């Protein structure tokens, strides 16, 4: 089954994570596991140039996102959006409230969301870790910017209560999309497909944090039929990214 990986990184995370993602290994995984394209971001806001280089080196394989830290200020974020989105064809924005220590719905995020709105860019936000990146806070941001497609990466991540909240918030706000990497409960992928919407749950790997074969198995065993799995694996990311 062909796939689009809706969330992966390149870069050396070091520290507690001890993982290091390279474009070469990612492409090798993509070829092995029928992943046509990967939505790619850096390890943080300092790595956008490496993502641009990887996208240029492997044409058509990566859908690059510009990684922003809203706490750098609106001017620096605007410069990065102009350089990478306007100048180099990046297709969306990535933020991680946990890594940069801002609450997802902080007003500091507003200038970024306004740029996303005016350019029709989806915004990918890490979810699942207190106190900054919980589904309720991401939902408060999505509520303020109903025109911005907001992807709740990891759909609550490792905690059942947060996963449940991700589903509830996505049901409430039609501009919230879910991505399942790192989220252990396959049954929640099916529940999201059935209750949130057929086009609002996407497959992802969070490479280099997880092996593609593990993330693929969660979709294959979640109880959806083949046509539905094709939506999760491929069609929904294709549609979100406007192809
Ligand atoms: Zn990630």
Automatic annotation (TrEMBL):
InterPro entries: ACMSD, Amidohydro-rel, Metal_Hydrolase. The keyword Iron does not apply. Pfam families: Amidohydro_2. Residues 40-242 form the Amidohydrolase-related domain. It comes from the Bacteria. The keyword Membrane does not apply. Keywords: Lyase. This is Amidohydrolase. It comes from Agathobaculum hominis. The lineage of its organism: Bacteria, Bacillati, Bacillota, Clostridia, Eubacteriales.
């Amino acid at each position: 089954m062909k796939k689009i990986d809706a969330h992966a990184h390149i870069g050396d995370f070091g520290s507690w994570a001890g993982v290091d993602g390279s474009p070469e290994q990612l492409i090798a995984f993509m070829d092995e596991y029928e992943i046509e394209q990967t939505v790619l971001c850096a390890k943080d806001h300092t790595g956008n140039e490496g993502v641009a280089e990887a996208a240029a080196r492997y044409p058509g394989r990566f859908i690059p996102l510009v990684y922003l830290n809203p706490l750098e200020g609106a001017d620096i974020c605007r410069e990065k959006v102009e350089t990478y989105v306007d100048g180099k064809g990046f297709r969306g924005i990535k933020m991680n409230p946990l890594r940069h220590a801002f609450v997802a719905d902080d007003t500091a995020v507003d200038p970024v969301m306004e740029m996303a709105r005016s350019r029709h860019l989806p915004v990918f936000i890490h979810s699942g870790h207190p106190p900054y990146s919980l589904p309720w806070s991401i939902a408060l941001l999505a509520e303020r910017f109903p025109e911005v497609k907001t992807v709740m990466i990891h759909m609550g991540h490792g905690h059942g209560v947060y996963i449940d909240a991700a589903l509830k918030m996505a049901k409430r706000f039609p501009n919230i999309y879910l991505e399942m990497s790192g989220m252990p409960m396959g049954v929640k992928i099916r529940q999201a497909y059935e209750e949130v919407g057929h086009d609002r749950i996407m497959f992802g790997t969070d490479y280099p944090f997880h092996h593609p074969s593990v993330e693929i198995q969660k979709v294959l065993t979640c109880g959806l039929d083949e046509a539905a799995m094709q939506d999760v694996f491929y069609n929904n990311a294709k549609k979100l990214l406007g192809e």
